[in-house]
Write a structure and sequence with these properties.
- The protein is of the alpha+beta class and about 425 residues long.
- The chain is built from 12 helices and 20 strands.
- The strands form 5 sheets. Strands 11, 14, 15, 16, 17, 18, 19 and 20 form an 8-stranded mixed sheet that branches.
- Helix 9 packs across helix 12.
- The longest helix is centred in the middle third of the chain and has 16 residues.
- The chain is elongated, with a radius of gyration of 28 Å.
- The N and C termini lie far apart (about 65 Å).
Length: about 425
Amino acid sequence: MRYIFKFPDIGEGLDEGRIIEWHVEKGGRVKMGDPLCTMETDKVVTAIPSPKDGIIVAKFGKPGETIHVGSALVEIEIEADSSEKGAADSVKTEAVEEEGAGVVGTLEVAGNNIVLSASKEGVSATETGVSKKQAKVLATPVARAMAKEYGLEINNLKGSGPGGRITKEDIIKYTRESSRPAEEKETRVSVISDSLEPVEIEPLSQTRKSIARHMIESKRNAAHMTLFEEVEISELERIRLKYKEELLSGGVKLTYLPFVVKAVAASLAKFRSLNAEMDMEGERMIYKRYYNIGIATDTERGLVVPVIRHADKLTVTEIAAEIGASAEKARQGKLTFDDLKGGTFSITSYGNIGGLFAVPVINYPQAAILGVGRVSKKPVVKDDQIVPGIVMPLSLSVDHRIADGGETARFMNSVISYLSDPVKLLF
């Protein structure tokens, strides 16, 4: 029996993904759980596992192509169990062919329980028991080649041939009637490419599209206000240097960031508005009594924000270990949705790259984000004396609808207090 597996809804409101790499070949055997392909979604690059044991009959989509949730990914030949073999023997098939082309598919004419008895996923049966989705994806090689040439998603087209197959006439008709045919897209690209100056054109990645949407959403829905401060951290630096080599021998890199995370988590417990969310539709405030700190991480694919969960309950060393592990997973493209969801407050540390102060964009619907700038040695005043000091710049953006100026300043003062005297974090 044939089973068409469609790109599943893997959560977080995603509706599409881009094929990065296929791990199976036509005619190859797969087992349930084996990776079919690697997909890039808005937030992560993840492997899509096979839901069945069987043989790959067809693959839909090439590396680089975007697949929508609900569109076919693979067709698998699965074996019927003993209770189904009798019914399967009675299944009739209708060959689909076109002049000048060989048979490219069959249409199962039987009840829904026979076509996909192992799983009803992907089946929308009519009164006659014919799977609509299966009928739609039937097409001849000529039609498939034309669809690829024109950049069309063939699974979204309706066929006029026998059994609902898609013919070359259907492709021609669609391109003529479509308000945005593929030719128009190609023309637009060539206009840009024919510019007098050299340009480089590449498609937007799912990650970059997600970043763009979230930044616009944040600016549109939150009332941004940013507070700038500096904190003298000579004592923190002394402690960090004292234990840096010892922890490094255990595989943990101790930077300034774990101290900042711990100071933020401790301060959020005292200033709940900075760890809140506004529900306008429900006309209510949601104050979160858990402290999950998202760490903005720079990768080749773009910015991702893995989350350190329950940071208030972790030691500085444990936070440092989690930051290191998350950063490594991000660089390797192995972050999962569980690594990214559930954040209540975010930190972006750009100082190691460059920059003192910034106006960080809030990770909506969170209430605030803290930016950490470049740490440097500067003259500071201590006991009425000018002495050298280690100074860390801080930029705190808040949603002014949720956090007032006074509470924002008091929260920043609390963070500064912990960073300037990190022994307090022990108590």
